[in-house]
Amino acid sequence: MGFEQAWLDYGKKEGYADAERIRYIYADADSAVMKNSVKELRDALAAFTGRDPQVNALSERKEGTGQIESICLVKKEGCRAEGYRLYEEKGGIVVEASDERGILYGVFALIFRMQRQETLAGIDLKKEPAMPLRMVNHWDNMDGSIERGYSGRSFFFENNEILVDERTVTYARLMASVGINGAVINNVNVKDQATYMITEKYFDKLREMSEIFAGYGIRFFMSLNYAAPVELGELDSADPLDEGVAAWWEKRMKIVYDAIPLLGGFLIKADSEGRPGPFTYGRDHADGANMLARAIEPYGGLIIWRCFVYNCRQDWRDRKTDRARSGYDNFMELDGRFRNNVILQIKNGPMDFQVREPVHPLFGGLTKTNQMLEVQIAQEYTGQQRHICYLIPWFKQILEFRTYVKETDDTVRDIVSGKTFGQKNCGMAAVANTGDDENWTGHDLAAANLYGFGRLCYEPELAAQEIAKEWIGLTYGRDQEVEETILFLLMESWPAYEKYTSPLGIGWMVNPSLHYGPSVDGYEYDRWGTYHRADHLGIGVNRSRNGTGYALLYREPHASVYDDMEKCPDELLLFFHHVPYTWKLGSGKTVIQHIYDTHFEGVEMVDEMARRFEELKGKVPEKVYGRVTGRLAHQKEHAREWRDQINTYFYRKSGIPDEKGREIF
Ligand code: GCU
Q: Is this model's pTM higher than 0.85 or not?
């Protein structure tokens, strides 16, 4: 399928004198990244002005006459790794960095300023990435399908073959432009043909792809099947403490790294949702991760090991087992046992990417282990890219959460930026929302999450509004009304989605397996550990000290706050407590009235979003207008379905009417 350029669609900028005056680029294009930096700059300038700038070696740089007429790319010590400076000097703009990734990021930052037609005179700024690892995780399967993919099929795989083409390059440019420096290309559920990605069969294409990625500063990663030695038919065990198994991996890793020297390492989902792992052999996850980490250590490789490990064969009658506890219970006791090239990748919450969850208690629990935060921009539980749900405000809240693991520098952001424990192997990963749809993300506005995720990892201090404005300006230009309207839609979207779906932190209530659309009891009598426990008197899961005790896994003051119904924040009340429908929230409303009110409000918010967007007819490209209005029409309908099912369910359960007498069925 053809594809668009998303926020890299550089167009002609009539009358933008700052770009028109630039005639020269001075740079030493002595590596792939430097060549790509120069190419990107040249292409952008050519698009902005309709004229090719001249590219010369740095040694030929001439002092200008005062007005800015050149751009120089200079490698020089001064910034931290992957940081850059932009400043004006002697009639030119200098992009300065101590490494080439920094140059590339500086080049994109400069292009983005020009794309938004900002003035370049007097520019003087320095940026350094907060998080060392800024990664996307693709859940693409080798047959071309995408697990939880909502924007078409894979552009990495088709029919068990690996695709390397023009789209691979544009993908890498898009990622690099927002500072992404690592990508895992295949699904964490490694099955069937994907197990063979570490065999000769796929090496050529994988190497080719890794080289393209490297040209844009992106480290290439794969997901790995823990039981590969068995499933490839070579051994009858994958026991991490068996010397034969360790030797098999050492040999295999040598072969893999000889063929794909740029490989960054592997992401592993083990002992989770049917995937194999060390538990089969009575070993723990430190045994498993360390065995693999030893095997790739000689090549500087990383093992990124996921903490999404829980019992997915629970009995709904059992009120003691708590899925929310499982990540903590499985990994806390291993703190300090992982090798230095192992990173634990922890989902933002203890359940599974719900519209609202508490922050995962492993953040603030672990003190001696490399940690990475995993979020999901594939909108599995947040509207599947048919509803608008701009997730950056939510991620900001997660990042700013104080863990109290120390007196200062203790937020999740500090931990994954390496500030709290001085770690280098840390950062953030997002389950990607891309596919082979023309616009990459299905919903045009979902691209704001892809853009925003990268920007947030690099500069987490940016406000969600700022990031949204940047993206709107790059994608849709400088029209004030367009900016205001799209900003309104984005900023309303997560609060609206939370209001018309599952209330007060309880989550789920979706159709099983699809995870789309309301089904209050969809998971209530199932094996997945995801219950709301509603009866005619009340609703919620008791995770306090008299319940599953989950609330006590946090450090103080969180533990006491979450444990206490009176103090627990409203938005998480039903996650932590079972309360009567008549319970008074902090807001002063009863739980049941809150449910009714928010569901009516959420739908009104979507109506207003759709109404405002209609005013943009003729102001955004027609294609975009058509795609977005089509999806908004569905979102309006679907939000009503959510509202009516949830309100009706709780009205019938509780028998308590809406104070305002609105229609409930
Ligand atoms: C969710 C999702 C699965 C995915 C899993 C994971 O449960 O529904 O499709 O495999 O998360 O993160 O591993």
A: yes
